[in-house]
Write a structure and sequence with these properties.
This protein has 282 residues and is of the alpha/beta class. The chain has helices at residues 43-51, 84-89, 99-112, 127-139, 157-168, 181-187, 209-242, 250-275; strands at 3-14, 17-28, 32-37, 58-63, 69-72, 145-149, 173-177, 190-194, 202-206. The mean pLDDT is 87.
Length: 282
């Protein structure tokens, strides 16, 4: 699969609060990714970093040459006084398209999202139709990767089902943030959860959301078992240390250092396991 964008060792904090560190993964053509995590885990921030609209504190974002990205924010903002046609045409300003080609492309995007009157004022749209208009504005850019932050917000059930069908037929890759488990199950083929419960700061699993839940449980169970095994090792080493080993010998020094490493590893594992709960969908 062709790579679209990669993140390497991405870190982001706000003041003294660290959202995430060391985030490293790659997105490829054909991937349909659900990005989940508890509130405050940094999902929206990471999506903006992927989009290139926000910079990380450290790390690197590598975008394939000439790759096209489109970003759909949680809140839909349109300039006042514009028709729906005007809104959708905005991203194509300066594209070099002829007037006729621009008209056709905008018309196709509006049609795909259910609009029948290009002259309709954007200001009078309901929340659900504002979301459709924002999606049309993203689709007209013909993205290789579409980034969607809570796209089902303000949508009724029929509109959610419509969006599922649109994404199912999409030729572009996408990353979406959603709290809707059914929507994730029906639209994604990979799930990434941001959480401190994982050594790398996230868990990535291929397959639908239900497969992610199974693999997540397996991972956390194995990590809990690792904590128990480490605790047993640490107890043995602490007992040995209490017997007062002669630290001047090379072998004793190495064992004391190993005991310190095990204690640190146990503390890290306990901290991760303490944060492990339900998958990050409230």
């Amino acid at each position: 699969m062709s790579t679209i964008v990669s993140l390497r060792s991405i870190a982001k904090s706000f003041g003294a609060r660290t959202l995430f560190t060391g985030i490293t993964f790659t997105l490829h053509q054909g991937e349909r990714v659900g990005l989940i995590g508890a509130n405050g885990s940094g999902k929206s921030t990471l999506l903006r970093i992927l989009a290139g609209s926000e910079s990380p504190d450290s790390g690197e974002r590598i975008l394939r040459r000439q790759a096209r990205l489109a970003y759909l924010a949680q809140e839909d903002v349109f300039d006042p006084g514009l028709s729906v046609e005007d809104v959708v045409a905005q991203p194509l300003a300066g594209s070099g398209l002829s007037g006729a080609d621009l008209h056709v492309r905008v018309g196709e995007a509006l049609s795909r999202t259910g609009f029948t009157d290009p002259a309709q004022p954007a200001s009078g749209l309901s929340g659900g139709w504002r979301k459709r208009l924002a999606l049309a504005r993203a689709l007209v850019q013909e993205p290789d990767l579409l980034l969607l932050d809570e796209p089902t917000n303000h949508l009724d059930l029929d509109s959610v089902l419509w969006l599922e069908k649109l994404l199912a037929s999409a030729r572009f890759a996408f990353v979406l943030i959603s709290h809707d488990r059914c929507f994730l199950e029906n639209t994604t083929n990979r799930t990434i959860e941001l959480a401190r419960a994982y050594p790398e700061g996230f868990l990535s699993v291929g397959g639908p959301y239900s497969t992610f839940l199974e693999k997540r449980e397996e991972f956390l169970s194995a990590q809990a078992g690792q904590e128990q095994a480490l605790a047993s090792k640490v107890r043995r080493e602490v007992e040995w240390l209490r017997r007062g080993p002669k630290a001047r010998t090379t072998k004793a020094k190495a064992r004391i250092e190993e005991a310190g490493r095990l204690i640190g590893e146990l503390a890290d594992t306990r901290e991760r396991n303490a944060t492990a709960g339900r998958a990050g969908i409230d």
